[in-house]
Amino acid sequence: MTASENQVPGPVIELRGIDKSFGPVQVLHGVDFEAHVGEVTALVGDNGAGKSTLVKCIGGIHPIDAGDYLFEGRPVHVGGPRDAADLGVEIVYQDLALADNLDIVQNMFLGREKKSGIVLDEYTMEELAAETLAGLSVRTVKSVRQQVSSLSGGQRQTVAIAKAVLWNSKVVILDEPTAALGVAQTQQVLELVRRLADKGLAVVLISHNMNDVFAVSDRIAALYLGRMAAQVKTRDVTHAQVVELITAGRSGDLGLQQANGNGAKA
Amino acid sequence: MSAVITKRPAEEGTESPVREMVGGYLARVRGGDMGALPAVSALVALCLFFWVAQPVFMSTSNLANLFTQGAAGIVIAMGLVFVLLLGEIDLSAGFTSGVCAAILAVTLTQQGWPWYAAVGAALLTGALIGTLLGTIVVKIGIPSFVVTLAAFLALQGVALKIMDNGTNVSVNDKTIVAIANDNVPITLGWVIFVVGILGFAAVQFKQFSTRRRRGLTGQSLAGLVVKIAALAAVCGFVVYVLSMERSRNPAFASLKGMPIVVPLILVLLVVFTFVLNRTSFGRHIYAVGGNQEAARRAGINVDRIKITAFVLCSAMAAIGGIIAASRANSVDPNTGGSDVLLKAVGAAVIGGTSLFGGRGRMLDAILGGLVIAVIDNGMGLMGYSAGTKFIVTGLVLLLAAGVDALSRRRSLTTR
Prior knowledge:
The complex is a heterodimer of chains A (266) and B (415). Chain A has a domain at 3-88 and 169-255: P-loop containing nucleotide triphosphate hydrolases (Rossmann fold, 3-Layer(aba) Sandwich). Helices cover 32% and strands 26% of the residues of chain A. Chain A has helices spanning 3-7, 51-58, 81-87, 104-108, 122-135, 153-165, 183-198, 210-216, 239-248; strands spanning 13-22, 25-35, 40-45, 66-71, 74-75, 89-92, 115-116, 119-120, 171-175, 202-206, 219-224, 227-233, 250-251, 254-255. In chain A, the strands form four sheets. A six-stranded mixed beta sheet of chain A has the order 6-9-10-3-11-12, with helices on both faces. A four-stranded antiparallel beta sheet of chain A has the order 2-1-4-5, with helices on one face. A two-stranded antiparallel sheet of chain A has the order 7-8. In chain A, a hairpin with a 2-residue loop joins strand 4 (66-71) and strand 5 (74-75). In chain A, helix 6 packs parallel to helix 7. Mean pLDDT of chain A is 85; it is low at 1-7 and 259-266. By secondary structure, chain B is mainly α. Chain B folds into two domains: 33-182 and 259-413, ABC transporter involved in vitamin B12 uptake, BtuC, CATH 1.10.3470; 187-258. Chain B is built from 17 helices and two strands. Chain B has helices at 2-6, 17-30, 37-53, 60-85, 93-110, 115-140, 144-162, 174-181, 186-213, 221-242, 261-278, 280-290, 292-297, 302-328, 340-351, 362-381, 386-413, and strands at residues 169-170, 330-331. In chain B, strands 1-2 form a two-stranded antiparallel sheet. The longest helix of chain B is centred in the middle third of the chain and has 28 residues, at 186-213. The A-B interface holds A 81-82, 93, 95-102, 106-107, 110-113, 115, 118-120, 123, 126-127, 130-131, 133-134, 137-145, 147, 149-153, 156 and B 1-6, 27-28, 30-33, 210-211, 214, 216-217, 278-280, 283-284, 286-287, 289-291, 293-295, 297-300, 358-359, 411-412, 414-415.
């Protein structure tokens, strides 16, 4: 249908019928989810809908109880964060996980430092970090040797995203990247998110903010009480419909047929 | 601006080196890092004060004394830097040094071991204590404050047991006694100075030229020269002063040259600064101290890093114990006791190592240790009682910790 769909035969990541329980509480019920190359997929849902759990399943932090995890069409087993990273799936968490006392280069290469012999290869790391930031057209960072403690919220978010992109990743998942940012910084981060997709990555954006979702996303996946209410193209739906999907699980003929949730999907 | 990050040839000479250094320093202070400036200025101010109040303070024999007095504490403080960088603490480092010194004395004097075997036994004891402490902290999850407080008491007991409930064991081995009591020959002292400065300059210039060749920004050439010249001047002055005759009766027994502990501490400084700044182990120590969760998610084995830091800390305490045993020519159950630990922690913090983890350098321990040694020595010369010295040292530690806490708060609010 669309240009991007014609380029790519199938989704990079495809989840089918994912179940996940924590003890007696079942958080995810048969969730289907897909993310495509060159697209931003917004993952929306109310608090407790299961967004974070789904993302942690994708990232290998929680093992899935049932269902299929397909990566580039092949079924894969993701047993831990390392497996996900090896596939090229990087998650940028809301708390960013940056060490304040280290500089930008040190943070971007943390745990995966380049070395020559036993000595850290600072030159190569600095060059790669600067190239990555330049490749993302980041203009807000003065020097890659700045300590992260001296950066603003938007700059931190930028560094965290650049860190995820550094490793030739194919899928980048962003957990509420704009939640703590002001207007201008939100705009910068959203532009960055769009550029990631334009560079050929599959981007999954978790957000509560409908303006952000409609500003950058190509698809919207709405979770409702642990079920995937609908995964639709952004251009096919309105603001109000998405809000209904989030709050009631359905909107007209879209979404779960029974709002209380044990029914079939649309 | 993106071009600015990637490729700006190092534009040396466009900015005065002093301005560049001041600017860089101010940027670090804004980030919550006061660097060495407070400790260095305190050191200079204290030396001037004691010089005026008691001119004998600046006599060559007293300056040489300063180094041997401070050496044991400085080495223990250098070990503590590893643990403090993680945001942990080791309250037992003092008695670890005591127990290791006791092992040294007993194997040397009572068992008749050669000095190197006794030193090996002492270091091994230190490493074992560190492994035990680190494992308990990491695997059981008891705060290091409590674990090492328990070890503080227990190790005191161990030291007593080793020395048959408190007998003093003398240390007569020539090599061990020499560590804190003998001096390096004057020529060798100058050789160490020249090699050290040339080596430092070579490393710095190599870094400079590589950065320039690869188009990375860095320090300007002028700034580099100023830095190396300043270091050479300060070190040269110290070596010169220590090379002067300081015996009251040179015909009877000549006394000159830098104390052996000085090159010993320098070697430790170079090795551990390299480990902290140039290896991934060092990088991971800073990362765990800065944000443990980030380090864990980056795939760093946090437990292994912590245990290793405790091992290094206790092994350094063992070296401190050996120096203390050498200086006193004997070991008694009070070796490493009383104020040794608090002064060592104080030294690291006064030098600029944060109690909250993530910030600090090996050099801090040396600068802070010298500040404490100067206070101790200078007030002693002025005739103040031990009570007054404790109070002043305590206040200085409180001041340093206050500066640390405030600069940390500042860095948290300037996001």
